[in-house]
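Before the break, one more example. Copy the sequence into your notebook; we will annotate it together after we see the structure.
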Amino acid sequence: MSPERGPVFLARRTYRRRRLADAARLLPIVGTVLICIPLLWQGEGASGSTRTTMAMFYIFGLWMILATIAGIISRHLRAAENKEPPRGAGS
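Here is what the structure looks like once it is written out:
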């Protein structure tokens, strides 16, 4: 018989840092999909220049939002990295 195993437990700080790192890896993929959305727009009554203008506003706004999210994630990851004790400490 094998010995009983306890539940797998991850420290809250480590878990959050890993999820932030996952979000940082996923952000370019989500951004790419969202930037492709204007290609699907088919304005019935809008002229070509109006569609182009709306698409440019959309892309610029999306770029600002993605840059802000990336900055926030980066700041939190950097702060978590600075708070983490050295790996050899305490042994």
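Helices lie at 12-35, 48-83. The chain has one domain: 12-82. Try to locate both features in your own notes.
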